[in-house]
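May I ask you to review the protein record following this short note?
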Amino acid sequence: MKTAATILALSALLGISLATAPAGPSGAHPDTAAAGWKDLFSADLSDARFPEGVWTVEDGVLTASKDRCIWTNEMHENYILDLEFKTAEGTNSGVIVHCSDRDKWIPNSIEIQIADDFAEKWAKSPKTWQCAAIFGRLAPTRSAVKKPGEWNRMTITCKGRMIRVLLNGEAVTNMDMSKWTEVKKNPDGSKIPAWLSKPAATLDPKGYIGLQGKHAGAPVFFRNLKIKDL
């Protein structure tokens, strides 16, 4: 067993401060000003698909007036998606990836949940319905979302059938889609909502990216949506 002096010496040699080492899973959000990054949507949304009049941008903040999604016009595969979002009281929204059918997106995609975990309704819901979950399939390791009105940062990495979610500096979700081979239950035995009628393992990891609009009567706000191909 190493002595305390030896551990301190090794820490100093590696440039690690034991006092400032993170207590749990963490990670650095990417530098989206670096080469290879681009906007997910143009400033005027001319390269996006959405119902007319539903999604608007003001001072760089994107929001919707109805529960209708906004979609990329191009399919994406193997990428990092970085964005900021802000909830209101009771917000329930999401970031949608691997979508093969934008008109029938719910069974044909994966949704990374955005929710106001402080609202009683969502706090008492299954953990797979809370913020940064793979909705209905995989709960985050902890709730890392900020209170309504505060901006959050989320980084989603999609590579092959792996999906990783970093929320406010916390690595909270790590999914291998190939393990989700059943329709009715998750690998841990928990129940999958009936409307997710296709096993995640069967979904194509190449697809459209979308954002869910004003769902459950509460708005959601987005800004600084950036993407980088891997």
Confidence is low (pLDDT under 50) at residues 1-25. The chain has one domain: 25-229. The first helix runs from residue 4 to 14.
